[in-house]
Structures are given as structure tokens and as C-alpha cells.
From TrEMBL:
Domain RNase H type-1, residue spans: 107-212
Organism for this UniProt entry: Araneus ventricosus
Superkingdom assignment: Eukaryota
Protein name: RNase H type-1 domain-containing protein
Any one GO molecular function term: RNA-DNA hybrid ribonuclease activity
Length: 360
């Protein structure tokens, strides 16, 4: 993120132009508009004026004793360059594999007057780093003499929009808003990032260095998504431990040994079959709801019996597994769509024909 803060001769020039009853000016987007609409945009001195305007601006520059190399027929980019050299603050944040860093550097009269860099928590976001850098910039600007107009250029729209909202949910953004509200001489506007100036490159290098060697900055809270992620991870770990060491639901545990927040595609019939808690004589006998655990066909009335042996469910039969491969067989059936359809057909048939599953 690039932020350019300068006490600019541009503003003095604008006042001189307004004092000369000029009715037109140029804005950052290059358009030519009336001065009455100046509150809707920001002036900059980088555009080409008409011949008459260039002469008047050149007179203003001479009156302010600016050693400019601008000719009458050239554009005024040098005005912007010289104003930046008068005093500029470049701010950048960087997030690499080494962490998150933010940096501020102030260039005054070709001298690095102030530098600040910090290493944020590795889990902090780039948006938080941008707000941190912008907060440092507005604090620096608020301590400048009151007669100087300070302008902050930021290349990140999200941080600008957040800091311009008095009801923002971000604490740092609200602090920036309060400083800007109490210091109307500080202006914030958006510019394109990495314009190729020396201050931007300096701040970029400082931010990258801060990711490895910067002073720890602990005043920025961890982002809510990261906190939620930590809580979710801790919850799943405790749930997994409880599920692994539990005494109940072992039949389902053998099929699904790992817990997950993602729902399965099981329906009622699947739960009945794999938990073996349903209209099976062996289950009913276990809870004294039936006098016998035999099916009417003569076999033990278990879920596996109806899926592989019972003569009443032969339309949905599957190959019976060996006793030592029964658990592996259940896992494969649970993950096979065709087998699942057969299981659901068996359970529906048994539920609708209870008399057939009772012992003779």
C-alpha cells in the first residue's frame, strides 16, 4: 500500500489561481472542471494547461520562488515531483512466507526524516496491516503544524472506505476516522500503487525487511476468521477424542472413524441398517421386545441376514462377506451408491411387512 503525504505547494498554487478569478482547473482524472465542483475531487499539478493557463501558473511558481524546470510549453509534472520532495510519507505493507510487515518512511528535502516498521502477527491479514500503516500515517500528519495541509494518497480502496465510515466494525478504522474528523486539514484519496518513486521503493523494502526482522507489533487484534478457525480446530480435536474413546456407537465408528462438520448423505434407512437399531428380531430380542431373535425364514434376524441370506429379500441380496471381513464389507456398502439403494429397499420392505420378519 502506497500513501503519499505531503505539505504541498500545489495547494498554495490552487489558492493563488482562485485568487486570480480563474474559473477552471484540472483534477486527478485529467478532466477539466469548474472550481465550484472542486469539493468532488482533488487537484493535482501534473496535467497540461492551456497556453494562457501555463503562463499564469508559471507566474505563480516564480512568485513562490520555486526553482522549477517547467517551460511554458511543457506539462507540470515537475511541480508534483518537487512538492513531494518537500515532504512526503510513503507507507507500505507486505505479506510473505515470513510473515506480515508494515512500514512508514518520510522523505523531507531529500532526507529520510522518519522511518517506522513493524512485524505483525503471522495470522494478521493484509487489510489489517494496511489499516495499521494508515493509522501511523494519520498520527504523523496530525502532529504536523496546523497551517500545513496534509494529503494522504493510498492505493487501497478497502482501507480508505473503512476509515471513512464512522460506524465501521473495525476498531482501527474508527480511530483513523476520529483523527481525520478532528483534523480536517488531513485529506485522504486513492492513487495507483507502485508509481515508481523512490519513497515507494524504500517503504516496500522496509515492509519486506519487517516481515523477518521488524519489531513485533501486538496492538492489532487477530482477525475473527482466524479465531473461529482455532475454535473449530479445537472443537474437532475434542470431538474426535470423545468419539474415539467412547463406549457407544461403535458400529457407526467402525464405518466412520473420523468426525466431520460436513453432513453425510445418509437417510433414515441407512442409519437403521448400519446402526442395526431397527425392526430386526435380533435387536428386538435384545431389548425384550420379542420372544425370539429368529427370522420367519429360520435364520438369525440381523441386518446382515436380510442383506445376504433371507429368502424374503432376495431381490436386494448382496454377496455375504467372510466373518473377518464384515466391517470392511459394511464400509464398502456405505460408500457404494448401488449397494446403498439395495439397503434402503430392504429396510422399507421389512418396515412395511413386519409379519414376515417374525418367527414362525
Amino acid at each position: 500500500m502506497l500513501v503519499c503525504l505531503f505539505t504541498s505547494i500545489i495547494f498554495q498554487t490552487r489558492k493563488k489561481l482562485e485568487g486570480g478569478n480563474l474559473t477552471c482547473g484540472f483534477y486527478e482524472d485529467g478532466s477539466r472542471k469548474s472550481l465550484q465542483a472542486k469539493s468532488k475531487s482533488n487537484y493535482c499539478g501534473e496535467n497540461i494547461f492551456s497556453k494562457e493557463w501555463r503562463q499564469k501558473v508559471l507566474v505563480v511558481l516564480q512568485r513562490n520562488n520555486l526553482k522549477t524546470r517547467c517551460n511554458v510549453g511543457e506539462n507540470l509534472n515537475c511541480l508534483k515531483r518537487q512538492s513531494i520532495l518537500k515532504g512526503s510519507c510513503h507507507i507500505l505493507c507486505s505479506k510473505t512466507e515470513h510473515g506480515v510487515g508494515a512500514a512508514v518512511c518520510v522523505l523531507t528535502n531529500d532526507i529520510w526524516a522518519y522511518q517506522w516498521s513493524a512485524k505483525l502477527n503471522d495470522n494478521n491479514t493484509v487489510f489489517q496491516a494496511e489499516l495499521t500503516a494508515l493509522h501511523e500515517a494519520v498520527i504523523y500528519a496530525s502532529h504536523l503544524p496546523n497551517h500545513n495541509t496534509s494529503k494522504i494518497h493510498a492505493d487501497n480502496r478497502a482501507s480508505i472506505m473503512a476509515s471513512s465510515n464512522s460506524k465501521s466494525t473495525n476498531d482501527k478504522a474508527r480511530k483513523i476516522f476520529k483523527i481525520l474528523f478532528s483534523n480536517p486539514r488531513i485529506k485522504v484519496s486513492w492513487v495507483k500503487a507502485h508509481a515508481g518513486n523512490i519513497g515507494n521503493e524504500r517503504a516496500d523494502q522496509l515492509a519486506k525487511d519487517a516481515t523477518q526482522h521488524g519489531q513485533p507489533y501486538s496492538h492489532t487484534k487477530l482477525p475473527k476468521p482466524h479465531i473461529k478457525g482455532l475454535l473449530r480446530k479445537r472443537m474437532l480435536e475434542e470431538w474426535q477424542t470423545s468419539w474415539k474413546n467412547g463406549d457407544t456407537g461403535r458400529k457407526i465408528f467402525n464405518i466412520m472413524p473420523s468426525v466431520s462438520l460436513r453432513p453425510t448423505n445418509w437417510i433414515r434407512e441407512d442409519v437403521i441398517f448400519f446402526s442395526q437399531h431397527g425392526p430386526f428380531p435380533a435387536y428386538l430380542k435384545r431389548f425384550h421386545l420379542s420372544d425370539s431373535d429368529y427370522c420367519s425364514c429360520g435364520g438369525i434376524g440381523t441386518a446382515l441376514h436380510y442383506a445376504t441370506e433371507c429368502i424374503y429379500t432376495v431381490s436386494w441380496h448382496m454377496r455375504k462377506p467372510a466373518p473377518n471381513f464384515e466391517q470392511e464389507w459394511l464400509k464398502r456398502v456405505a460408500n457404494n451408491l448401488v449397494s446403498s439403494q439395495k439397503i434402503r429397499g430392504i429396510i422399507k420392505f421389512i418396515s412395511e411387512n413386519r409379519d414376515l420378519s417374525r418367527p414362525p
